[in-house]
Amino acid sequence: MSQYKMLAIDLGASSGRGIIGRFDGKKLTLEENHRFKNEPGIIAGTFTWDIMRIYHEIKASINKCALSDDKDIGSIAIDTWGVDYGLLDKGGRLLANPTHYRDGRTDDIQPYAFRTVPKDEIYNITGLQFMNFNTLFQLISEMRDSPERFAAADKMLFIPDLLNYFLTGVMSTEYTIASTGAILNAKTRDYAWDLIDRFSIPRSIFTPISQPATEVGPLSKQVLGEVGDIKAKVVHAAAHDTASAVMAVPAKGDSFVYISSGTWSLMGTELKEPIISSDSFKYDFTNEGGINNTIRFLKNIMGMWLKEESKRQWAREGKEFTHDELSNAAVASKPMQSIINPDDVLFSPPGDMPGRIREYCKKTGQHVPENEGEVVRCIFDSIALRYRWTVEHIDEMMGHKAEFINIVGGGTKETDLCQFCADACARPVYAGPTEATAVGNMASQLIAAGELRDLSEARQMVRDSFDIKEYRPKDTAIWDEGYEKFLRLL
Q1: 212 and 289 share one domain
Q2: Do the strands 75-79 and 233-235 form a parallel or antiparallel pair, or are they unpaired?
Q3: CA torsion sign, 183 to 185 to 191 to 196?
Q4: Is residue 4 packed enough to be buried (19+ CB in 10 Å), middle (13-18) or exposed (0-12)?
Q5: Residue 424, in any domain of the structure
Q6: How far apart are CA 180 and CA 169, in angstroms?
Q7: What pLDDT, on a 0 to 100 scale, did the predictor assign at position 455?
Q8: Residue 227 shares a structural domain with residue 345
Q9: CA 277, 177, 44: angle at the middle one, nearest 5?
Q10: Residue 216 sits in the same domain as residue 306
Q11: For residue 155, what are the domain limits?
Q12: Contact indicator for 250, 406 with CB cutoff of 8 Å
């Protein structure tokens, strides 16, 4: 049986992978061919991505294809986190390592920006949730604090577009990744030129917008000389990792609620047109782009970052735990003793997460977690309650109740949290696939190759290819009590 083969490069905040996909016309199978760490670091006081190391590892993944039976891959596509970018000079050379979205340069930028354009005006154009690290705010910060470097910039490329440029020499901006930056008009799906002009950002730094599932170009001769004889073309995935993950939601029809669960939890629904209203502004919901000009109407929720950063802190203290050990300790702990608002800015920076959780609980007059299990139970309970808050507001703005929730991504491995989501939200949860981002990346490649016709066929492929686990709500009364406590923290 003939099959189409492709390579998905899936980049996360702490690691990256090359994954081979094989599609036989109905089912998709995945095989990891390369895994590497993504280790940002502080250079001269700035938290930056090691973009050349990432690029080197991508070439290593392609080279493994060239040296194996996978040398006949038909395409390559890259997905990454959103908002961050690199600046290039007129010669196409990178001016500096891209700054990490968690760098402190934008801590004070929103009040500064709102003196030029008020907050509500920005939202009415972009429809985007306000976060200090939105690309718009990063650019304003760069212009204010690094004017000489910014003056040398000829082009700006988001991370996946920058890596595509390194591979092909072609500069273009993929729609879904651009939609994360507060630089697009949510209704026209094009650059928000009036807003860009009001902040005196040069129009010339932006490149044309391309849609997912379209071709970028072939690997350059220089790259081929490094990676070997690969005839695959580079195509645009839905380059924002959440946009790819949403493509892999195995729901039928147009009405569903999803959670793309990982370092962040992105919870929302898929629309044909953005919702930009007084309620969406008040609740700080975002309108980001998807394939076929769909809109991902969602809320960014702090997700497994809270547990991951706690685990790293305990390791720094000489206490090593597996994720399963921490989850088991959490389930063995008393529920609802301690609740936080996971989206409080206190929990955004790296560092001593357990200490900050204890500080928050003490300040709000709650039980202060005494051990690792109680800290992680606090995290799980709080995330599940934030899910409830979010889905109830989606129901309100959509005018009907979502009957179930789909969870995709690495967070599906946290089976206890999936059950807590069902309990807290009092509705069934369907979890899977775990590798949603890579699957969605490959769905874009298959559409570009003509192997799939559209998004509907892509989701049918997901249902045919992967097991989906169901969680039914159990003890909801205790979650009702916890929710009242949670609301008082907002």
Answers
A1: no
A2: parallel
A3: negative
A4: buried
A5: yes
A6: 24
A7: 94
A8: no
A9: 110
A10: no
A11: 4-235
A12: yes
Distance CA 333, CA 330 (A): 5
345 lies in the same domain as 488: yes
Amino acid at 442: M
Per the domain annotation, does 324 fall within a domain?
Answer: yes
Of the residues 235, 267, 286, which one is the last residue of a structural domain?
235
pTM of the model: 0.92
Note whether 72 and 144 are same-domain residues.
yes
Residue 476 in this model has a pLDDT that exceeds 90? no
203 and 309 within one domain: no
CATH at residue 294: 3.30.420.40
Q: Domains in the chain: how many in total?
A: 2
Asked if residue 321 and residue 184 are part of one domain, the reply reads no
* Residue pair 44/34 in contact by the 8 Å Cβ criterion: no
User: Is 162 among the domain residues?
Assistant: yes
Q: Is 171:119 a contact under the CB 8 Å cutoff?
A: no
pLDDT tens digit sequence for 58-115 = 999 999 999 999 999 999 999 999 999 999 999 999 999 999 999 999 999 999 999 9
Q: Could you give the C-alpha distances from 476 to 424, 425, 480, in angstroms and in order?
A: 6, 8, 6
pLDDT tens profile 332-365: 999 999 999 999 999 998 899 999 999 999 999 9
Q: Are 44 and 193 in the same domain?
A: yes
Q: What tokens appear for 316 in the block?
A: 């720094």
Residue 211 located in a structural domain: yes
Are 223 and 247 spatial neighbours (Cβ–Cβ below 8 Å)? no
Last residue of a domain, one of 175, 201, 235: 235
| Residues carrying an active site annotation | 241
